[in-house]
Amino acid sequence: MAQADDIISVPDERLRQHARRVGVITDDVLDTIETMKAAALAWEQTRDNEVGVALAAPQIGVLERIIIVRHQPDNRDDHRFDAFINPEITKYEGEIGAEPEGCLSVPDTYGLVPRYGAIRVSAMDTGGETFRLKTTGFLARVLQHEIDHLRGLLFVDAVTDDAFYRLTDHGKLKALTKQEIDADRVFWNG
Q: 41 in a domain, yes or no?
């Protein structure tokens, strides 16, 4: 059974490595997806003010191009996730806007990250079928964030020095300086 501590955190070097493509959907790949789902839900149970919206396989130490995204990210009671195997962004569209992002592998830290407002994605489902998706808004942001993980990138790499926050015990974001974040080794990049 997966646990919250199955999710690795900075400064674990695996978060900075590139994930390899999945060639064939095997039982091991399907097991990885189930472990990812269970780990995201277990992590969420340890957090009063956060929801496990998505996870990339490298975040559980598996260097394969697999991500999961919660079917209804606003509904903590909905435990369904959609799997994206070998996801690729095929087109960036729309305006670039900065919104707050956090990460299960960067505990309690948030930052304003510039992302495209719309993207097109190609991926495989768990049956090995290729699908394409055009999405906007929050889902576009989440997919860009997770696909970055597959390239060894973390959201903190794109945050400007004056746009970092810490989640308080009351669920509020408190502005931080880069020096405060650096002291916690969030910027470690191997």
A: yes
The C-alpha atoms of residue 59 and residue 146 are separated, in whole angstroms, by 10
Say if residue 180 is exposed, middle or buried (CB neighbours under 10 Å; 0-12, 13-18, 19+). middle
pTM equals 0.89
Count: domains in the chain: 1
Strand partners of residue 89: 121
**Residue 95 is a catalytic residue:** no
Cα dihedral 136, 139, 140, 146 in deg (nearest 10): 180
Q: Choosing from 44, 64, 101, 146, which is the catalytic residue?
A: 146
Each residue's pLDDT tens digit in the chain (190 positions)?
A: 666 578 999 999 999 999 999 999 999 999 999 999 999 999 998 887 778 899 999 999 999 999 999 998 888 888 999 999 999 999 999 999 999 999 999 988 889 999 999 999 999 999 999 999 999 999 999 999 999 999 999 998 988 766 777 777 777 777 777 677 667 655 544 4
We report the CATH number of the domain holding residue 109 as: 3.90.45.10
Domain hosting 63: range is 4-183
Distances (CA, A) of 156 to 5, 34, 103, 168: 21, 27, 9, 18
